[in-house]
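[step 3/7] inverse_fold.run input=structure_tokens len=166
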């Protein structure tokens, strides 16, 4: 999948029509899978895929100036990023112990703090406007190895094959 490139679009509040479309200069950032505008400044957080299985959270000003990478982490999907209400931290999801879990990192940089230790995947964080709650997607998955006995009539489409868990 090719990288996405964000743009800042100015909209006429009366008509709802865009009046200006400015691509966001990304500099060293390889593309943008998810973006989130700071609630308190002109900074934009960007989740970027840097290589297969490796993502990063970057912060850039709205004019593209001063890009800085906050953290690089393992992920195989766009897992989301959001700012805390006061703009002091970012919440994101990364793989740890084989599952996606939520982390927080100060927007000025520093060590990530693990927020969840769920038995399932937790991703797509969205911080409430008052900053007291984080909503997230929780995905339950179950992996099984199945054995399928092939019968001549199942190969001809006469009936569904019989799947059994091993």
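[step 3/7] decode complete -> sequence:
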């Amino acid at each position: 999948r090719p990288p996405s490139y964000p743009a800042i679009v100015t909209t006429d509040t009366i008509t709802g029509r865009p009046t200006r479309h400015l691509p966001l200069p990304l500099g060293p950032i390889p593309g943008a899978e998810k973006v989130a505008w700071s609630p308190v400044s002109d900074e934009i957080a960007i989740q970027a895929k840097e290589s297969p299985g490796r993502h990063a959270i970057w912060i850039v000003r709205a004019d593209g100036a001063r890009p800085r990478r906050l953290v690089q982490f393992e992920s195989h999907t766009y897992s989301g990023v959001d700012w805390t209400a006061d703009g002091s931290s970012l919440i994101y999801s990364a793989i740890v112990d084989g599952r996606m879990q939520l982390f927080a990192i100060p927007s000025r940089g520093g060590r990530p703090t693990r927020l969840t230790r769920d038995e399932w995947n937790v991703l797509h964080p969205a911080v409430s406007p008052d900053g007291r709650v984080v909503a997230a997607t929780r995905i339950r998955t179950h992996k099984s190895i199945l054995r399928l006995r092939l019968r001549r009539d199942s190969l001809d489409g006469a009936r569904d094959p019989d799947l059994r868990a091993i």
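[step 4/7] annotate
The CA atoms of residues 40 and 87 lie 6 Å apart.
The chain has one helix and 14 strands.
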